[in-house]
Each structure stands twice: as structure tokens, then as C-alpha cells.
Amino acid sequence: MNKTLILAAAAALCLAGGASYAATPYASNVRAAGKAAPANFARDPTLSVLYNQQVDDSGIAIVSQMFEASYSIYDSAGADDFTVPTGSTWTVKEVEVTGQYFNGSGPASSENVTFYKVKNGLPKKAVGTYTAVKGKDSHGSFTIKLKPAMKLKAGTYFVSVQANLTYAGGGGEWGWESTTTSQSFGNSAAWENPGNGFATNCTTWAVEDVCIADGQGPDHLFSLLGSSK
Fold first, then answer.
1. Rounded to whole angstroms, how far apart are CA atoms 115 and 120?
2. Which of these, 5, 128, 220, 222, has the minimum number of CB atoms within 10 Å of its CB?
3. What does the alpha-carbon distance between residue 156 and residue 178 come to, in Å, rounded to a whole number?
């Protein structure tokens, strides 16, 4: 959907008390494109890096958030894929995501992490869900420990990370930072907004940079840590 139309649709919506709600599904150019985000992950040094996609920061973050009940039509989720190599089994114990707060300063109360099987290049069936996990927060970049660990056999999966964050009172929005268009890993990132509050018509999983065309690349910044056998 056209960027101007997204902004207009969001700004036109109002709270019951009359205050306008100017939330948008992205934040642009907060960080310099092509440079690593200044994330300070609280990484467990005993874990191995199973997958790393923390490269080519576009400076654009896409909202992936569970809002409070009064803003539930804006609840949205981003997801990106990764592949467990043939003959391997991964035990994922930690997820790192690079993100930022915008239209407010946060912080998130917790995060939701979901792993999905893939169908037609998009998330399909959830194979593991972690709700309201309190990760280490470094200015909107999260280190999230998974208990119990997520065991994954060889194959391709999507992982989704959402911030549980109250918009009102200055909390604002949380966005998952994207790569530049120069880099692509597997399938493009996916995004959904079931309540269609952002007026993108992506009420089920769809290709993210088709839903929100703000110049971001096709993928998100994240890493998976744990062990492999």
C-alpha cells in the first residue's frame, strides 16, 4: 500500500477521548543504512551461534507488536526464515533481534516468540510458541532466552518476534529492523496485521515489503544461538 495512504489511514483514527492516534507500521532512517545497529546483546558465551542475519541494517524498522486492548486492531507480527541444514538438529536456546522504539520510548514489558513451518514461502503452522518472555532489552534490541529450548530438525522455518508494549503514555511502538535491499536470505520476511488497523489489507501472513513498501530490504536482523548435533 502507498506510504502516504498508510499515514493518512493511521492519523484518521481516534481514541474515544478524542486524541488522534498517529501510529505507523514503520520507522524510517533512524540508523544509517548499511551499518551495524548499536545493539548490545546479553549473549550467553557458552552457546554457539547457529544462525546469524545481523548484517546490512537498512535503518528502517517494521512494527511487530501486541498493543493494549484498546488498540488491538494494530496488533501485528513480523517473521523471517532460516534453514536447519540437512542431517542436523538444532536446540535453540536464545534469540537475538535488532529493533528500536519509535513514536515513544518503550520499554516492552515482554516478548512473544513463535516458530512456524513454511508453506509457499510464508509462515504456516506454529511448531513452538513462547508467550510473555522477558528478554534483556538494549534500547529495543532483545536477547530472549527460550525455556524449554526449541528443538528443530532439518528444514526451513520462520521465527516471529513481537514486543508486548503499551502504546499510550509514551510507550509507543516497537519495530524489528530490516536489511538493505542488497542482501537476501532465503524467503522474504513476512508480516500480518489481522485487525487491519494499518490499512495494508495484510490481515494474514503476506510478503512484508509488499505490505509495507518503505524502501526496506527483504529480511530482518536476528540471530539464533544454542547447540547443534
1. 16
2. 5
3. 20
pLDDT tens digits for 18-43? 233 446 676 654 443 334 445 678 88
Cβ-contact 81, 158 below 8 angstroms: yes
Q: For the whole model, what pTM was predicted? A: 0.86
* 33 DSSP assignment: T
Q: Residue 46: CB partners within 8 Å, gap ≥ 6? A: none
CA 187 – CA 117 distance, rounded (Å)? 13
Say whether pLDDT at 127 is over 80. Answer: yes
Cell of 107: 520499554
Which of 34-38, 73-77, 94-98, 196-200 is least confident? Answer: 34-38
- Sorted by where each begins, the domain ranges of the chain are 25-228
Burial class from Cβ neighbours inside 10 Å (0-12, 13-18, 19+) for residue 69 reads exposed
